[in-house]
Amino acid sequence: MWKIGAYIAVSGAAFVAFIAAAAGLLLLYWKKKQQIMAKDGDVELQQLSLSVRTISEKKVSFEGSQDTIDGQVIEPIPHKMMIETYTLEEMKKATADFSTSNLIEDSVFHGRLNGKNLAIKCTKTENVSKIEFGLFHDAVHHHPNIIRLFGTCETEGPDSFIVSEYARNGSLKDWLHGGLAMKSQFISSCYCFLTWNQRLRICLDVATALQYMHQIMNPSYLHRNIKSRNIFIDEEFNAKVGNFGMAECAENDTSDQNQVSCSSHSSSWTRGYLAPELLHQCLPSPSTDIFAFGVVLLEILSGQPPVTRGTEKGEGTILLSDKINFILQSENADELRGWMDNVLDENYSFDQAVTLANLARACVEEDSCMRPNAGEIVEKLSRLVEELPAGESFTICESSCKPLVKASGSNM
């Protein structure tokens, strides 16, 4: 019996020892697991910290870095754009104290400050506060077909200044109705004009800008002041829409909407760009921008202003948007040929001219619901541009210049 008791005691001791060993192993395993988890947690925290720090460093790096396009310094991050504040002394320095030799048109001066070309516009001080500066913290500030706003100069007086990108080749209005190119760029004895290929590409550039404003920006943006005077041409003959973010300021510019005098100054042509619904106090919409764009297309086709005085006694004034309906309804090809800008002579595709004229007529439909949207316009214009011969040089050459004496019959 004592042997049995001894076996039981030994077995019990062995069992207890086994349990203790197993518990020890489990405890050791648990501790090691905790150490591994703690180590992994530290690694994850380190990675997270590194990630946050890397993102932060990239943000600082991007915001602090600068690229150069056409000699102008820009920030590569589209969502971060600082609008500068200039002093009156800087404005005077940039324009040689607002010298008439730097006057571009009306109250707009060409300036140069810190190696950068600027367009400096004198405006009412109250207009500066109406600029939608929030729009310039987005990719739109880098859109290739929209004039960039660099900053402002507010004074205590009635006049302040808006500083924006300088377009070396002036406005579309200069080219279509001014007769002379910018005197700082070309010899004054040369009457220069836009070729057909250049005109088509300019149409597409402006339509692309409108597509961005109407269909890509969120919320969408209405320009409300599309006209040839607010479309600018850079040194590569790319078109850029100006006065972006200044829709509220444009209300003052359209205060003469009921005036239809036919002087050569484009501010008296305002009614020609106004959609019919605006004359009935309806609210602006994307289709009202499209109507104004359609009028610009008609200017590009014909070289005529949006409003003209009737040739016959008692005829009054004629809107370009009304004239195109009469021409296309006649179904007489000679009517359209005779209406085209005579400086083009025969150097254009008549089929393309017909297509563009019909597109323009669709844009100036009296019923706003019948007008195409910007995306549809871009699609149609893209097809026309794709048909153009490749490799055209967009510098002024003999084919787009005539002696100044031949300009006497143009719309000056």
From TrEMBL:
Where does this chain mainly localize? membrane
**Domain spans labelled Protein kinase:** 87-384
One GO molecular-function entry: ATP binding
Task: Please give the biological process terms from Gene Ontology that the record holds.
Answer: response to other organism
- InterPro entries, per database record: Kinase-like_dom_sf (IPR011009), Plant_RLK_LysM (IPR052611), Prot_kinase_dom (IPR000719)
Pfam hit, one: Pkinase
Q: Which domain of life is it from?
A: Eukaryota
Q: Which UniProt keywords apply?
A: ATP-binding, Cell membrane, Disulfide bond, Membrane, Nucleotide-binding, Signal, Transmembrane, Transmembrane helix
Is Membrane a UniProt keyword of this protein? yes
Instruction: Work out whether the entry's keyword set contains Heme.
Output: no
Q: Its membrane topology, per UniProt?
A: Single-pass membrane protein
- SUPFAM superfamilies from the UniProt entry: Protein kinase-like (PK-like)
Task: Give the protein name, as stated in the record.
Answer: Protein kinase domain-containing protein
Organism source for this protein? Daucus carota subsp. sativus (Carrot)
